[in-house]
């Protein structure tokens, strides 16, 4: 098999200025095979951008699905994060959480859409994240329903704070959500303690279903690592771009 068809691609680097974060944020932007500025494309926005590209092999997955399965070509925007500040930006309890969410909706997306032929309707924007990246992605969508209606979560850290936010909504039928969690994620060690991600995701699933969320929920053999998420990522890509 000629793997060079899947690994030969264009990924550009940008620095997005941010007043909310008082600086700039590095992003990588993947251009799909056959990219043409005269066309318009849906966009996959990824938290932990470096990890999604390096460990998730997101660009390779997308290229393979486009070339082999006729998946709709899409842009991928990978947003970098300083690992030392990740909890502060991605956790609802974090000191930079509100500022990061505003940066994402008010600065990052307009920056991308002013420079690339990205579609502007909310159904063409998908936000993806793993663990706390899934958390912040869901919160961004809940707080900006006019901009985002599709979220891809890989073992999201959906704890009490997030369920309280979901409970504020009466109707989430507008929200399309893909949730994946591993059956071995029952004692995940994090910087904030050890958590049963499987139970937390099940509880969050139940709450989302009471709000009529358009939900695809999957439990599979796997641990809280990229080795698990990488192999399952194409399922989420097919759901949103197939």
Automatic annotation (TrEMBL):
One Pfam family from the record: Esterase
InterPro entries: AB_hydrolase_fold, Esterase-like, Mycobacterial_A85_antigen
Signal sequence extent: none
Protein name as it appears in the record: Esterase family protein
Species in which this protein is naturally found: Paenibacillus hemerocallicola
């Amino acid at each position: 098999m000629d793997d060079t068809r899947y690994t030969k691609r264009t990924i550009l680097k940008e620095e997005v200025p941010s007043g909310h974060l008082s600086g700039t944020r590095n992003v990588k932007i993947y251009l799909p095979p056959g990219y043409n500025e005269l066309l318009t494309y849906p966009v996959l926005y990824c938290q932990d951008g470096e990890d999604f590209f390096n460990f998730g092999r997101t660009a390779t997955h997308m290229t393979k699905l486009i070339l082999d399965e006729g998946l709709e070509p899409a842009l991928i925007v990978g947003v970098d994060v300083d690992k030392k500040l990740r909890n502060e930006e991605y956790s609802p309890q974090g000191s930079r959480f509100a500022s990061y969410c505003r940066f994402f909706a008010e600065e990052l997306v307009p920056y991308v859409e002013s420079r690339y032929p990205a579609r502007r309707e909310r159904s063409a924007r998908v936000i993806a994240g793993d663990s706390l990246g899934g958390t912040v992605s869901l919160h961004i969508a809940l707080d900006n329903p006019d901009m985002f209606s599709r979220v891809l979560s890989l073992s999201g850290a959906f704890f009490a704070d997030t369920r309280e936010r979901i409970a504020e909504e009466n109707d989430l039928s507008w929200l399309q959500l893909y949730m994946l969690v591993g059956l071995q994620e029952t004692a995940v060690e994090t910087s904030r303690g050890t958590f049963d991600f499987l139970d937390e995701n099940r509880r969050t699933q139940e709450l989302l279903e009471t709000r009529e969320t358009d939900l695809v929920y999957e439990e599979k053999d796997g641990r809280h690592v990229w080795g698990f998420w990488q192999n399952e990522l194409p399922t989420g890509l097919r759901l949103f771009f197939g």
